[in-house]
Design a protein that fits this description.
Blueprint (H helix, E strand, L loop, with lengths): L6 H13 L27 H7 L11 E6 L2 E6 L4 E4 L3
Antiparallel strand pairs: 1-2, 2-3
Length: 89
């Protein structure tokens, strides 16, 4: 995740890339783009809470991770800002 990207946006971008989805329905599909649109992240986890847990505000960072399933992918958000996405088998 980039320093200015929120954890919730990083998750949506990563899952879209790994699983072959378009991240949002508000963007029109390109010509020939038949990729389905991701369900909202809030359908599986509270994005505001996720962002709050891993915000970079200069305070000491917590350690740990949050794991959840999103579009059949296993997602892990680590305290150091890494977002891991494992596609379904």
């Amino acid at each position: 995740m980039s320093p200015k990207e929120s954890p919730s946006n990083a998750v949506v971008s990563a899952v879209a890339a790994v699983a072959g989805y378009r991240p949002v329905a508000t963007e029109p599909a390109g010509e020939g783009d038949t990729a389905p649109v991701l369900d909202p992240l809030y359908s599986v986890i509270d994005p505001d809470a996720l962002d709050e847990m891993f915000r970079d505000d200069g305070s000491p960072a917590i350690s740990g991770r949050v794991r959840f399933s999103y579009h059949d992918c296993d997602v892990a958000v680590l305290s150091d800002g890494v977002v891991e996405v494992t596609p379904p088998e």
